[in-house]
Design goal:
Length: about 180
C-alpha cells in the first residue's frame, strides 16, 4: 500500500496533466492565427508606418481589455488613404452600413484566468513582450504560449520587462492576481 498509493496518485495526476496539455484548444497555442474578415497587415501599419500599438488599441491604457479598433479608427485614415483598394472599399461599405467588423480573437486566455492590460501598459511593459514582434507580422499570430509558466516567469523577473529606471522588480505572484 505504501508503494501503490503514491504510484497510483502520481499516475492519475500525470494523466490529468497530460490530457490538459494535449487537448488545449488551438486558440491557446503558439501559432494560432485565425483568418480575419478583412486582411490586415501589422507589418505595414505598426512596422513600416510606425503607428503605435496604443493608437488603435487605445483601450489598453484605461480598460482591462486592449480591444480591437472600431471602424471609425480605421476610417479615420482610410477615408482618404488607399480608397481604391478592394479591402478598404469593403471597410468603407461596412462603415457606411453601420455594421461592426467582426475581427477574430488571436490572443485568448482560458475563462478561469483574469488579465488586465492597464497595469502592464502603465508600467511600461512593451506590447511585444507578450504579443511578439507584431510590427514584423503580415498576419497576426500568437507567438507566446498562454501557459501560466510564461506569466509567472515574467512576474518573478519583472525587471527585464519594464523600462530602465522603473521601481518594479517583481510583480504579484499570488493565485488571486490572475485567478478570480
Amino acid at each position: 500500500m505504501r508503494f501503490l498509493l503514491p504510484v497510483g496518485v502520481g499516475a492519475v495526476l500525470m494523466s490529468v496533466l497530460s490530457v490538459g496539455w494535449f487537448t488545449q484548444p488551438d486558440r491557446y497555442a503558439r501559432g494560432h492565427a485565425p483568418e480575419q474578415p478583412v486582411p490586415y497587415s501589422h507589418r505595414l501599419h505598426a512596422g513600416t508606418l510606425s503607428i503605435p500599438c496604443l493608437y488603435c488599441h487605445w483601450a489598453a491604457r484605461k480598460s482591462r481589455h486592449a480591444g480591437v479598433p472600431s471602424l471609425e479608427t480605421c476610417m479615420g485614415c482610410h477615408q482618404v488613404t488607399k480608397t481604391d483598394s478592394p479591402e478598404i472599399q469593403q471597410l468603407a461599405a461596412l462603415y457606411e452600413s453601420g455594421e461592426p467588423i467582426r475581427w477574430r480573437r488571436v490572443h485568448a486566455l482560458p475563462d478561469h484566468t483574469f488579465f488586465d492590460h492597464r497595469p502592464h501598459v502603465n508600467a511600461g511593459v512593451e506590447c511585444q513582450t507578450c504579443h511578439g514582434e507584431v510590427q514584423t507580422m503580415e498576419v497576426l499570430e500568437q507567438r507566446m504560449s498562454m501557459r501560466m509558466s510564461n506569466c509567472l516567469e515574467c512576474h518573478r523577473q519583472a525587471r527585464w520587462a519594464v523600462p530602465e529606471g522603473s521601481a518594479i522588480e517583481r510583480a504579484a505572484e499570488n493565485c488571486w492576481t490572475c485567478h478570480r
